[in-house]
Amino acid sequence: MSLSESETQARLLAQALPFMQRYENKTIVVKYGGHAMGNAELGKAFASDIALLKQSGVNPIVVHGGGPQIGAMLSKMGIESKFEGGLRVTDQKTVEIVEMVLAGSINKEIVALINQTGEWAIGLCGKDGNMVFAEKAKKTVVDPDSNIERILDLGFVGEVVEVDRTLIDLLAKSEMIPVIAPVAPGRDGHTYNINADTFAGAIAGALNATRLLFLTDVPGVLDKNGQLIKELSVAEARALIKDGTISGGMIPKVETCIDAIKAGVQGVVILNGKTAHSVLLEIFTEHGAGTLIVP
Ligand SMILES: Nc1ncnc2c1ncn2[C@@H]1O[C@H](COP(=O)(O)OP(=O)(O)O)[C@@H](O)[C@H]1O
Ligand SMILES: CC(=O)N[C@@H](CCC(=O)OP(=O)(O)O)C(=O)O
Predict the structure, then answer these.
(1) Model pTM score
(2) In terms of Cα–Cα distance, which of 102, 107, 36, 45 is closest to 72?
């Protein structure tokens, strides 16, 4: 017999009790990826996990993506999605749609789900309260044929250059949960589209977060046999990138984890957002749920 959602929550809460003190008053940044958003039930379970963190005395900050949802909107408008080096090539029209989808519909959907739990979430992007400034990304790739490095022109794709934590700190004091979209202004007056993983890493670094969680579509970092690796040091993670065990979209994610650890985040976890209540299972159980990357 399967448990109802309220029975599941009561059971999770009972399991969580012994672990609650560990993270009291600590900041946990949760990156909620577009692939992890899945269906309505998963969305509700995610919102209730964030609410439960807040009720346990944790200071949760949500940074979300929405790559597939941006792709769907662009295609509705007859615009083809183009990626280079894992980043969306973003012209003026595209950045307008990116901002509309990320800072508009997705952001408000997540805020509404958290608010339905009785907690107070507030939706923001880097523009609000001068929280984040970006500049044009300087990304290079090595051409596999000629072995020559070239600079990519990705248009309005940005990288974070400044984070001002004033607004986030104020919200935490007011018991509000910030939900942040990875869109930020440049000092040049343009709006930039920033990869949600790198944006979350920059926010977690600026806040000296205790944990940064990446919710994705696999259980964590898998070894050559497809088995979950429970804990990885920065050196081990680099070796797995070098020997090809970590590939594709997992490379920039793990590189962001390494950067976040260097920036002062104490532990970064990659876990499956497609498993209901994965945030609580990670934070409030002895062995966690995904791959913990540590210094
Ligand atoms: N060693 C590995 N362990 C787990 N996933 C890996 C590994 N190497 C490559 N991947 C791929 O990385 C993907 C996750 O990265 P990505 O698709 O960019 O995630 P997201 O869209 O959640 O940001 C996985 O679905 C998997 O296909
Ligand atoms: C520059 C760049 O590629 N930005 C991403 C921002 C959204 C994102 O990163 O969403 P996920 O976390 O769901 O992948 C994009 O336009 O798709």
Answers:
(1) 0.92
(2) 102
